[in-house]
Amino acid sequence: MLNWLDQRTGFVSMTKDFLTEDVPGGASYWYAFGSATVFAMMLQIATGIFLTFYYSPSAATAWESTKYIIEKVPAGQLVLSLHYWGATAMIAFMMMHMLQVLLWGAYKKPRELQWIVGVILFIVTLVLGLTGYLLPWDLNALLASKVAIQISGSAPIAGKAVLLFLQDGSGIGTLTINRFFGIHVWLTPAVLVLLVGMHLAIFRWNGSAGPPIDEMPKLKPGRFWPDQMFMDTVVSFAMFVIVFALAVFSPAPLDAKADPNN
C-alpha cells in the first residue's frame, strides 16, 4: 500500500528524507522553540474552532455567549482558558525562537527571506492577540482595545484610515466586534498558515543553520528523527503542561459586560 502511494505521490520518500535529515552540530533543545511555536499555533486553531461553535459576535451577545461557554458548555471554561494562555505561550515561544535565530546569526545569507517571513509572522501573531482581546466584550477588553485603536489612529498619514477600518464606525460597538472577529477568525489565521508554510518551505530549502561558529561542527551531526524530534516533543509537551496548569488553576477572566456609554 505504501509503495503504491509512494509511486503516485512521492509522499513516503519525501517523509523519509525529511525525517532522516542531518542536523548540523547535532540535535539541540535550542532548535525546539520553532516547533513549539507551531504546536502552540495548532493548539490555538483547535481551541478556536471549538469556541466559534458557541460564540456570537455582537455587542448584545458577545459577553453572554462567552459567559455561556464558561458556565454551560462542557469543558468550555477549560478550552477557553487553553486558548487564552495558549496565545501568550505562542507569542513567548515565537520571541524566543526569533532571539535564538538572531543570536545564532541564522538570518544571514542565504536565509534573509526566511527571517523576513518570520518577522511578518510575528506581526501577524500580535494582530491575532490584539483582535482576540476584544471578543469577550467585557469591561477590560473594551478599555484595552479602545486604547489600542486610538494608538493606531494616531499614526501619521494613514492613522485616520486605520482607525476607521478597525473601529468600523464612530464608536466601538457591534461593527467593531464583527470587524475584529473577521480578522481574528478568518483573515489572520489564513495569512498565518500561508506564511508558516512559506517559512517551512524556505527552511527545507536552506536547511538548518547549525551552531554560531565559523569552523565545522566537531559534534557528529544528529538526525531530525528521532534526535531532534524527541527534543521538539519534550519542549512542546512541557509548554502544554504549563498552559494546561494555568488554564486549570488560573482560568481566563471575564469582567463585567462592556458598556461603551459608561
Helical/strand content category: mainly alpha
Unreliably modeled segments = none
Helix content percent band: 55-70%
What distance separates the N and C termini? 66 Å
Give the averaged pLDDT, no decimals: 92
Number of helices: 10
Percentage of residues in strands: under 5%
Q: Tell how many strands the DSSP assignment holds.
A: 2
Main sheet specs? 2 strands, antiparallel
Radius of gyration: 21 Å
Strand order of the largest sheet: 1-2
- SSE order, as H and E? HHEHHHHHHHEH
Give the overall shape, derived from the CA principal axes.
Answer: globular
Describe the model.
By secondary structure, this protein is mainly alpha-helical. The protein is 70% helix and 2% strand. It contains ten helices and two strands. The protein is globular and about 65 Å long.
Keywords summarizing the entry:
262 residues; mainly alpha; two-stranded antiparallel ribbon; 10 helices; 2 strands; globular
Helix and strand arrangement:
Blueprint: H1 2-9, H2 11-19, E1 22-23, H3 32-52, H4 62-71, H5 76-104, H6 112-134, H7 139-153, H8 159-167, H9 174-206, E2 222-223, H10 224-249
Helix pairs in contact: 3-5, 3-10, 4-5, 5-6, 5-10, 6-7, 6-9, 7-8
Compact summary:
It contains 10 helices and 2 strands; from the N terminus they run ααβαααααααβα. It has 262 residues and is mainly alpha-helical.
